[in-house]
Amino acid sequence: QVQLVESGGGLVQAGGSLRLSCAASGRPFSSYHMGWFRQAPGKVREFVATIWSGGSTYYATSVKGRFTISRDNAKNTIYLQMNSLKPEDTAVYYCAAPSRTGLGTIATMRADYYTYWGQGTQVTVSS
Question: pLDDT tens digits, residue range 23-51?
């Protein structure tokens, strides 16, 4: 059974940094595109970043230049390094994995591309 477990969230002041981790289990993930999403109170879940199996990365405009997604296939883990955090980054952050491999496309920026989700980790940025 596929499981995703996020960690690394917390409370940080504006301008600070956090590094989120997502440990995957149940199958090897090296062939799968992976994603990070977030959901703030009262808002819909939104795309943050994706990393394709070949290593290509794509970001939401709101985080580009501040966040970096990476993966360690040997550890079945993906990361989200978040720098220059802003109060509007406050949200629950989720990692996600699809049920199928395939060519990387813009679909990897949509929540409905993914089948498996972690429980989420809270990130709170104070002003």
Answer: 999 998 999 999 999 999 999 999 999 99
